[in-house]
Amino acid sequence: MSERTRWSRWMGAVAAVAMVITSAACGSEAPAAPPNPIAVGKVPDYYPADYQKIIEGSKAEGGELVISSGTAKENWAPIFRDFQKKYPWVTSILAKESGEEIYQQLLSQLATDSVQTDLLVASSTQGWADFAGREDSLDPYESPEAGELPEFAELLPHVYAMSLDPMGLAYNTALVGQELSGLGDLADYAAEHPGELDGKVVVRDAATAFGFTVARAWTESNPKNPNAWSTFEKLLPLSRAETSSGTQIEKILAGEYVAGFLISSAVGYGQEEKSGGLLKFVLPDDGTLLIGRGVGIVNKAPHPNTARLFLDFVLSAEGQRAVAEGGLTAFRDGVKGAPGLPTYQDLVQRLGRDALVIVPFETLSDADVDKFRARFDGLLHG
């Protein structure tokens, strides 16, 4: 492709971004989710007979709940709304933003009997596996919803999946001249357009715990693509790394990158909807990762009964509908996703079960982590 053609495409992308911003300002709205019927103060018949003790215990905890999480506020909004509708005495929910440091912070608080967090919600598989494997780190609460859920819903003992969020591929439609359905398609496109994508592809940074988790899972746990490393060997030399899905999407929309992969659907779905067609977010047919957003109750939590109510709620049919409305991927049978937001069951129908990779929650040795990162980083663009 000539430099003039590339320049024209890039200028077209910039103009398209301006059009998207203008149309957003004019008040274009996505279809609303259907109402979520909530049985206020009531629980299903399959809950234990003494569950009322948890409810009464919660009423005595001051109406507060504290959550440490990296989940965005827009994802939380319908969940908090409906939980507080069900249990209206819970008047204050503090969602503290946290990263990898939270595990060590909680261990220190547990050791000094100064725990300030009720629930931990995170997608860091290694961090969760290490923390949950430590004695007395989690409340050994067994949710009565567990028997109503798929077996994979319990990620670790006493750690449940709130959602199963896909990782996808995104590209700027003003800069890519054809539809892409997977990472292999992107690699083929790059081969057919020499030089066009050099340094113009963005991948999640494997130096971060989350980036390492998803990169390793796609290459090491992907039955749909047993030669996944060969695809990475084609794409990584074209790629630069960024530390968040939000940054990946932002720079693809701006035209700084043409395409990107290992991008969270929690960001991708919403940005595709807002882009007016400039951004395409795709769940790869050559392996779509599903990463559990693990939720567990911290031992010695300051509001343990309210935490139990919340855990049971997000796993219930009511809670899973709210999870879906917030843009995350619900997995409970019978729950329908919000418009344009598929559930796990929808993904099985669309892609086939063999194309879905549920990322395992496991710990690896430092040597294994370093070996993978060295190989990954050694392939990255310049």
UniProtKB/TrEMBL annotation:
Keywords: Signal. InterPro entries: SBP (IPR006059). PROSITE patterns: PROKAR_LIPOPROTEIN (PS51257). GO terms for cellular component: outer membrane-bounded periplasmic space. The keyword Nuclease does not apply. Residues 1-27 form the signal peptide. The keyword Signal applies. This is Extracellular solute-binding protein. It comes from Nonomuraea terrae.
